[in-house]
Specification:
Distance between the termini: 129 Å
Number of helices: 12
CATH class of the largest domain: Alpha Beta
Structural class: alpha+beta
Shape: elongated
Helix content: 40-55%
Length: 387
């Protein structure tokens, strides 16, 4: 009976603390040596502790193998050992937490806001508590006690008070990991997030590409009726997300990065790592964005210094088709690099096809009306003859 009780006690402590039974035994031995040297003196390195794992009986021996266990030592050691055992267990727990969360760096975990302090939040993650500094928070978000939120494990470090887990909601990787969780094509590697730029709480630009030409990377991220991207926008409390297709052509990639503005020309200066972008004058403010945000995010996304310039618009404001320019405008306007040629050609062809169909329908209707009128006249003449 004693055997099972001792082993059961060891196993219970190990299970509750999440450590191995061997670590519990090691803590007990350390506590016994410390208690002995405190009351009876001696060198701790010269003392060996033996524990009968069947009965739990503890004996102390010197290097010569002589039993030096004092009478009644078990009762004396029990009180002295308690703090040592608890300390050892706490150290083991911290080490396990450190190892566990180091493996989770860059991953999203869910926690509960446990405490709100000046400048940082304490997030309860179950086994431990994490810290979200002010720099990792989103200024437009409001936090409250007991609120369940998703956070990105950004760093695990040894602080003055032990192991500290640092989490974030403002990092660009937080959005990236949300898409990995929401979009199966990203999770299985079919769709790849090539680049991402974010101003937390306001707007994110993300460039995606697909390893399978049959799969639309942008459509995969948006989802049917926008359900996938909307779920992420909800998690980010309404932050805007621009998803653009990645292009191997630097010019096209830069042009796409400035969406929703339509670019007419991109000039590349590779030595200065600079791109001069021309957009129609009526879309200049759209390309730059509020407080320069759209151009700033495009810079971060493409890693090019983008300078946006206004140019004479080559697009008709109503139809969106390329319009005819006067001789003066042609001299002032540089030839387009063809960034939107496919779009222009497609739109123009669709417009011409629709116009042709409308003309044919109108001609057919006129013919039918003429035939109806002739038939009516013939009928009227026949009736007059009969009379």
């Amino acid at each position: 009976m004693a055997t099972s009780e001792f082993k059961l006690a060891i196993a219970q402590v190990a299970t509750e603390r999440g450590i191995s039974p061997e670590d519990v035994i090691s803590s007990i031995k350390l506590a016994m040596v410390k208690a002995f040297t405190k009351d009876f003196g001696g060198n701790a390195d010269l003392i060996e502790v033996q524990i009968d794992e069947e009965t739990g009986e503890t004996r102390l021996f010197d290097l010569d193998g002589k039993d030096i266990t004092p009478s009644g030592f078990g009762r004396i050691a029990a009180n002295a050992a308690r703090s040592v055992i608890n300390q050892k267990i706490r150290e083991t727990e911290k080490q396990m937490i450190l190892t566990e969360f180091k493996d989770k760096i860059g991953e999203i975990v869910t926690g509960t806001i446990f405490r709100i302090e000046t400048g940082f939040l304490i997030i309860d993650l179950g086994k431990t508590q994490a810290i979200m500094p002010y720099s990792e928070q989103v200024s437009s978000e409001s936090y409250r006690l007991n609120q369940r939120i998703k956070v990105l494990v950004k760093e695990v470090r040894q602080g003055t008070k032990g192991t500290e887990v640092i989490v974030s909601r403002s990092a660009s990787d937080f959005v990236k990991k949300l898409f990995e969780a929401e979009v199966p094509e990203i999770a299985n590697g079919t769709v790849e997030i090539v680049a991402i730029a974010r101003e937390a709480g306001s707007r994110t630009k993300m460039a995606v590409t697909s390893a399978d030409e049959k799969i639309d990377p942008v459509g995969s991220c948006v989802g049917q009726k926008g359900v996938r991207v909307q779920a992420i926008i909800t998690e980010l409390f309404g932050e805007k997300i621009d998803i653009i297709p990645f292009a191997t052509s630097t010019e096209k990639f830069i042009a796409s990065a400035l969406s929703p503005a339509r670019v007419t020309e991109v000039e590349i200066d590779e030595e200065a790592n600079k791109a001069i972008v021309s957009v129609p004058e009526d879309q200049l403010s759209l390309a730059i964005g509020k407080d320069g945000q759209n151009a700033r995010l495009a810079n971060k996304l493409t890693k090019w210094n983008i300078e946006v310039r206004g140019a004479k618009s080559i697009f008709d404001s109503e139809s969106g088709l390329q319009k005819a320019l006067s001789e003066a405008d042609k001299k002032e306007t540089k030839p387009s690099m063809g960034i939107w040629d496919e779009l222009i050609a497609k739109t123009k062809a669709e417009a011409e096809e629709k116009a042709r169909e409308d003309r044919e329908a109108l001609e057919k209707m006129n013919q039918e009306n003429q035939t109806t009128e002739e038939t009516a006249e013939q009928t009227e003449e026949t009736n007059e003859t009969r009379e």
